[in-house]
Every structure is written in structure tokens, then in C-alpha cells.
From TrEMBL:
Family assignment from sequence similarity: Belongs to the 4-toluene sulfonate uptake permease (TSUP) (TC 2.A.102) family.
Membrane topology category: Multi-pass membrane protein
Name by which UniProt lists this protein: Probable membrane transporter protein
Pfam families: TauE
Keywords: Cell membrane, Membrane, Transmembrane, Transmembrane helix
PANTHER family with a match to the protein in the record: MEMBRANE TRANSPORTER PROTEIN MJ0441-RELATED, MEMBRANE TRANSPORTER PROTEIN YJNA-RELATED
Domain of life: Bacteria
Subcellular locations according to the entry: Cell membrane; Membrane
Primary residence: membrane
Spans through the membrane: 48-68, 80-101, 107-128, 140-165, 203-221, 233-250
């Protein structure tokens, strides 16, 4: 019989390698999946440490992909900066708010946002047209994503790509620009978490080595498989995993979403009953 530690180690290596491969071939939208791996395979129960550790790994992976593989992930610097600068300021406000959210609620909201990410990533490239308000849109989108990133205590990487698509960037440019923004967002969040000693350094070496190995394979695969059909297949796989991951998080944490609503409903119902019976 294999020990549970050995089985968990193998599962983490396989999961991190596969995630790294997808990140290298698709462009970074699946980085939120590291939260599921660390939560349910590595059993990292403290949600604050979970998001902080995932953010540290995301920083290293996004930085590596941005500066190692220039094509097809070349960013448009001006829109990326207009997106990132207000996002950093909004992160500060989000950090001040996220301490009031329970761990299960943050995980449930993350699952919901992952589902929305899949929906927007599939719809926006076909529905949006080029806009003359690119600067205004990127600034507004960066502010929203930065606020959400601070609220979760992470880098918000999985929201950056659809947000840049909404801003008016074509998909090819949004991919590289999102990597730049994710690197900055996650880097700032990691520096903040270092001061709070919230990062679990026992997890990072094995996870990061496996993910970087998967990224190396993904870069090699991307250079050899230039066909549009191959890229679309990998995007469908990544979207499917994000969809399953979001549903999994919701299934395990859904009660944290309806309890506040149920409490509000009970309070209103009690008020109406009192009003009409007395």
C-alpha cells in the first residue's frame, strides 16, 4: 500500500506539471487552478495561506512565461500599463476589505468567478468590436480586477484576460498584456504577504519545479504545433478544467453563499409576519 503522503506527492506533481503545460500553451488563464490543487491535494486549510501561496507561485510562472516566451504572448505595453496602474491602487482597497470575508465564502466566490471567466472568455472575442475608448475601458477594467484581486488576497490573474478582452484588445494582444498585469498584481500581493508571513514555503519548491517543467514542455509543444486547430483544442481543454474547477469549489462551499441570503430572508419574513399579525 502506498502511503497517503506518497500518493498526494504524485498527484501534486502530475497536477502542477499539467497546469504548467496548459499555462504555457494557452497563456495564463488557468493559473487559478493552483488554488484547487493546494486546497484539496496538499490540504492547505488556512485560506489566507492558501491564496498567498498560490499567488507566490503565480508570480513566478507568469514572470517566466512573459519573459521567456515572447511570442505569441507579446504585450501591448500602453494598454497593459493603463490596466495595471489603477489596479494596484484598487488592490490596496481590496486588501482592507477581504479580512471581513469568511474562508468558505471567498472560495465560493472564486468558484463563481471562475465560471464567469469561462463564459466571458468564450463569448467576448466574438461579441466585441474595436473601440476608440480603449484607455478608459482598460482603466475601468483594471480598477475592478485590482479590487477583486485585493479582496481575495491573490493576483486576480484569471480575470485579467477577459477584462482586457472587454476593454477592446484582440485576443492575441490581450494574452500577453494579461501576463504583464498578472505578474505585477501577483508580485505586489506576494510582497505584501511576505510581510505577514502568510506564504507556506514547504509547498512551493515541489509545486513550482513541477509547474516549470510542465511549462517547458508546453513551450516546446507550442513551437511545434502552430496549427490553429491545436491552439483551439488546448483552449477548450483549459476552459473545461476551469469550468469543472469552479463547479467543484461551489459544490464544496455553496452553503456560505446562501446562508447570508437565508438570514436576510428570515429577517424580512419575520418582519412582515409581525407587521400583519399584530
Amino acid at each position: 500500500m502506498f502511503s497517503s503522503l506518497w500518493v498526494s506527492t504524485v498527484l501534486v506533481v502530475v497536477s502542477a506539471t499539467g497546469l504548467g503545460f496548459l499555462v504555457a500553451t494557452v497563456g495564463g488563464g488557468t493559473l487559478a487552478m493552483s488554488v484547487l490543487v493546494m486546497r484539496y491535494l496538499l490540504r492547505l486549510r488556512n485560506v489566507g495561506h492558501l491564496f498567498a501561496t498560490s499567488t507566490a507561485v503565480t508570480t513566478a510562472m507568469a514572470f517566466t512565461l512573459l519573459f521567456v516566451r515572447r511570442q505569441p504572448f507579446r504585450p501591448l505595453w500602453r494598454p497593459a500599463l493603463w490596466f495595471t496602474m489603477p489596479g494596484i491602487l484598487a488592490m490596496a482597497a481590496g486588501h482592507a476589505l477581504h479580512h471581513g470575508l469568511s474562508g468558505h465564502l471567498r472560495l465560493a466566490l472564486l468558484g463563481l468567478l471562475m465560471l464567469l471567466n469561462v463564459l466571458f472568455t468564450m463569448i467576448l472575442p466574438k461579441a466585441l468590436r474595436p473601440t476608440k475608448r480603449l484607455t478608459l475601458r482598460t482603466t475601468a477594467a483594471g480598477t475592478i480586477v485590482g479590487l477583486i484581486a485585493g479582496l481575495f488576497g491573490g493576483g486576480g490573474g484569471f480575470l485579467t484576460f477577459p477584462a482586457l478582452l472587454w476593454s477592446g484588445l484582440p485576443a492575441a494582444s490581450a494574452t500577453g498584456s494579461s501576463l504583464l498585469s498578472v505578474t505585477v498584481f501577483s508580485g505586489v500581493a506576494t510582497i505584501h504577504n511576505l510581510g505577514r508571513c502568510a506564504i507556506d514555503w514547504h509547498i512551493i519548491p515541489l509545486y513550482l519545479i513541477s509547474a516549470l517543467a510542465g511549462m517547458s514542455s508546453g513551450i516546446w509543444f507550442g513551437k511545434r504545433q502552430q496549427a490553429r486547430r491545436s491552439r483551439l483544442s488546448m483552449q477548450w481543454i483549459a476552459s473545461g478544467l476551469m469550468l469543472l474547477g469552479g463547479l467543484y469549489l461551489l459544490q464544496h462551499n455553496w452553503s456560505s453563499l446562501y446562508r447570508p441570503s437565508l438570514a436576510l430572508y428570515d429577517g424580512l419574513k419575520g418582519g412582515f409576519d409581525y407587521e400583519f399579525t399584530n
